[in-house]
Amino acid sequence: MLKIRLRRMGSTHTPFYRVVVSDSRRTPRAAFLEEVGYYNPVSNPPQIKIDRERVNHWVGKGAQLSPTVKKLLRRQSVVVAS
Questions:
Q1: What is the pTM of this model?
Q2: Is CB count within 10 Å lower at the N or C end of the chain?
Q3: Where are the beta strands (DSSP E) in 1-82?
């Protein structure tokens, strides 16, 4: 099964996350199929950029969203709407 989840990047104490589509049976550090966005919690305000069109494409093919990615998508839509 495919999962849309976060993949931690960056150095110690400065996390940066990529939102990736990958196989749920593999570790988040393993190879991924596509990068659909990123999340930078260190910046003020935190930066969230996720390509909703590509996320919808993958969800249409059966990919599941992780709980954290769901929260980020909700937060991104609130930020854009404001």
A1: 0.86
A2: C
A3: 2-11, 14-23, 34-40, 47-50, 64-65
